[in-house]
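Possible race condition, two jobs.
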Amino acid sequence: MYVEGWNVHRVIRPARLANAVVERLLLRILEGEFPPGTDLPPEAALAAEFAVSRTILREALKALEEKRVLRIRHGRGTTVRPKAEWNLLDPLVLSVQLEYESSPELVAELGEVRTALLTLMAELAARRVHPPQREQLAAALERMRAAVEDPGPFHEAATAFTRTLAEAAGNEVARCVIETIDVPHGGQDDNPAKLIETMKLRLLLAEAAHATVAAGPGAPAGSAPVPAPTSSPAAPGAPVPAPATAPGAQPLRQGQAATVPLNRHGVRTPMPQSARV
């Protein structure tokens, strides 16, 4: 079987070749060639199919075992585990599933998790944010607005916004989870119009998170942020005014509708008002 990346005219590093085998084998499992509960062919047969050494094959099988996709029983073979046991937060497992088996249920679940975590981080940041972080959030959001039709710079700005929000919230675990489920958004797609649409929706969610931070702790949904001073600078010790947000941006609050959940590009179309985080 042909392995992507193979070229007889150049030497491929063993780690890269093992990664290629991991991805191709995972794809064959998702396509149903090796359903959950079934045993894989013997190592010698698989190594011959992928045109790799048994050492490389074992490295690939071990990697899939660590991702909880396979169960290796020495002397008894290798079995595909049920999908319910797979590590869905593994970047490769998640990206391959979204690329080749993007079920509406998985997309919806990722959207719910991402929106809930952003909501939590925005509320925590509203209480804990420091003035430099306010400036960094506003700057990252402005870059997102300016690059809303340019996938590469937009994704960089969106990543900076999420990282700053997590730092302001004091919750690195939430940042790691969000960045993991954002892995499928690579900045390229065969449908540019659709990609731009999803980036605009993701921008709306960032606007809402920024509005939550700007409104301050305990502010009701829809509250306007404190206006910036127009004359002399604030006296020492005075509270720093919140940065401006886009007109109409509504703060995120726990229990509100998940306005812009994630799809394979980073977001998807808005959910009905009855849907709750």
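Job #2 (started ~2 s after job #1):
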Amino acid sequence: MRGSLRARSFFSLPCGPRAAVSVERRQHHGRVVSLTRRRRLKPDAASAGRAAAARGRLLVCPTPLGNLEDITLRVLRALRECDVIFAEDTRVTRKLLQHFDIRKPLRSFHERVEAHRVGELREHLDEGKTVAAVTDAGTPGISDPGAALVRTARAHGATVEVLPGPSAALSAIVLSGFECSTFRFDGFPPRKPGERRAYLQALASEQRPVIWFEAPSRVVALLHELAAVLPDRNLFVVREYTKKFEQQLVGTATEIDARLSKPARGEFTLVLAGTARHAAPGDALAASEESGIRAAAGLLRRAGVGVKDVVDALRLITGRSKNSLYRLTLDSSD
């Protein structure tokens, strides 16, 4: 029909990241004409990936607490492939890197330089770089620098990853054998004697285990304060965890103070057992049963039977869980 347009071909040309030019060729009165129009395009997955890469990455890398064999393959790869490493103490981290033959730029990151380093982090992320964050030992951000870096990177739209690895706090609560379905981590207890005593007095009714880190120069004072304020509460102390002279102690604060190597040296992690839950009148039978289990466990322990064998034997008799029997067996040695 005269004046009609018949489509002959259609194709698209790229025109910028979010648009394209559509070119349609048609035949009109025996002549080929081209009609063009723009249409919007949705960003594809590759474009989104490039945008995320442009904002960089922050990798939070746990490091060994004392035994270099505890470092993970993922952390080693992250340290080898990153662009720069932010370290709590560059002298400590440099020894770790030298051991694994890793050569990367090091920048110190601690309280005194936090504001300046946060600005540097933004610059690295803007350039699409990968920044690794490490502390002297353990997982950054747990009573150590690191939280400010995570907040900054996330606010900047960067990718943030925390790699699995060592944590003295979690290891200590498991080693303690205390009931740990819930627990609290309070970092370092107060330093000043008056504040520390008031803090410990407030824990008299705390039913959850409480985990602390403590410096060797203050750990004995903490034990003396615990002996005065909470004399009957069980305590677990691990010194120099994963190192050659690791020491584990369970008992009251007075008992541990008597057995602790003096002068106190090394890194200390402590777990204070939660107070016993008050039994309701209907729980009298359960309380009586626990008392009997403690007595039986005490007899076996005094006869030289190991804790594991005591727990296994009592489990066959009572049908209770290993965790609860382990706790009662430890209580029996008090």
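The CA atoms of residues 156 and 239 lie 39 Å apart.
Logs attached separately.
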